[in-house]
Amino acid sequence: MTNLQVVTIFVNGRPIAAPVEAHESLLDFLRNKAGAVEVKCGCNQGDCGTCTVLFQGKAVKSCLVLALQAGGKEVKTIKGFAGDPLMEQLQESFVRNGAIQCGFCTPGMLITSYAFLQANPSPTREEIRTAISGNLCRCTGYKKIIDAIEEIAMKRSEKGPFRPSPSTYSEGQEEAKGNYLLLGGG
Fold first, then answer.
1. Of 4, 31, 95, 186, which has the highest C-beta tally within 10 A?
2. Which residue ranges does the chain devote to CATH 3.10.20.30?
């Protein structure tokens, strides 16, 4: 016999009430009960970041939050950012810089980038690398993602037009260095 509790979570401003089990994750609630299939399920262990949502204003991996913990609280998926100027700038920059390939990691990557730029509007490339290190991308090599985020940071901080940072690495080496850092290397 299962012990269910009804929980109400405000998903993109809309209250969604549904019965949940004590062990049910916010990710499962969002996908299966709120119909928010734009929240992707990658590893279900908190390693990949594809399930990242904005929870009470902070980027979190929804597979690591219990649905019961989210009761009565605000959750924003990528669809909840419609019309948000910063998110629109990020999305356009991701497209312009070729930071999207298969698109599976993109919603989580965008939400992580959004929360990061809200907290740190003028980051260094290294700070950007660190900020997205919990979001895995198997297609891009990260350089283009970092370029896209840096472009918006530069525009927002009014440092003038975006110009790629001079690098001591060739493009291939920069991508390899980025992958290494994002996979937990030094």
1. 31
2. 4-80
Q: 3-class secondary structure for the chain?
A: CCCEEEEEEEECCEEEEEEEECCCEHHHHHHHHCCCCCCCCCCCCCCCCCCEEEECCEEEEHHHCEHHHHCCCEEECHHHHCCCHHHHHHHHHHHHCCCCCCCCCHHHHHHHHHHHHHHCCCCCHHHHHHHCCCCCCCCCCCHHHHHHHHHHHHHHCCCCCCCCCCCCCCHHHHHHHHHHHHCCCC
Per-residue pLDDT tens over the stretch 61-78: 999 999 999 999 999 999
**Average pLDDT score over residue span 3-15:** 97
Provide CATH code, domain 4-80.
3.10.20.30
Residue 156 has pLDDT above 90, yes or no: no
Report the CATH superfamily, name and number, of domain 83-182.
[2Fe-2S]-binding domain (1.10.150.120)
